[in-house]
Amino acid sequence: xxxxxxxxxxxxxxxxxxxxxxxxxxxxxxxxIRDGTIDFSSFKRWLWLAVVMGIWLTGxxxxxxxxxxxxxxxxxxxxxxxxxxxxxxxxxLSGLASLSDEISWFKQEAAKWDVPLSDVIxxxxxxxxxxxxxxxxxxxxxxxxxxTALWAIETVYQESFSHCLEDGSKTPPELLEACQRWGSEGFxxxxxxxxxxxxxxxxxxxxxxxxxxxVTFLRVLELEIEFWDMSHGGPK
Length: 236
Description:
By secondary structure, the protein is mainly alpha-helical. Helix content is 73%, strand content 1%. The protein has one domain (3-231): Up-down Bundle (Heme Oxygenase, Chain A).
C-alpha cells in the first residue's frame, strides 16, 4: 500500500466514521457466521433477499445484484466520459464480468437451500437500497460520488466475509463457499483497485462534491446495516 493510499480520503473517512463502518463490516449476522452460531433460517432469508440485488447476495441479494448490474454499468459509462485514467474502465469491467457468474451462483444456492426465487417479495430495506442505486445512476451525479458508492458496496462485503475466513473462525462448512466467494484474496485485490481509483478522484474533487461523496459513503454503510438486519431477522 503506497503512502498516498494510506493517507487518502477513504482512510480518513473510515477513521472518522469507524463506529458505523464497523457496524457494517462486523454486523452480528456476519459474526454469527464466523462463530458458527448462525440460525440457518437467517441464511435462507439472506439468500432469498439476494435475488433482488443481482451482484450483491442470494434471495434478496439476488434481487439486489440485478439492480447492481445497471448501476455498475452506469459507473462504466461515467468513467468513459469523466475519468482521467483509461485503466478505470478496465477495473470496472472486471467487476461487471463477474456478475453473470454471481447471478448463476445465487440461483444454484437458492435451489440447494430450497429458496423459491420466483416468489420473492422485495423486503423494504432492499427496496430502499435499490432506490438508492437508481438515484446514483442519474446523469447529474458526479463520477467521484458514484465511484465512492461502488467502492463502499464491494468493500463492505469483502471485509465482512473475509472475517469469516480468518484463523480461529468456526464458519459452518455449508457456508464456506459463500464466504470464499466474497472474502477471497482476489476480490480483496479488486476492492483495493477500487479504493485507489476512489481516492484519486476524491483528492481532485471540489469541496461540495467531496461532501456529497462522504454523505453517499455514510448512506451505503447505513443501508448495509439495514440489509444485514433484515438477514438477521430485524424489523420487517
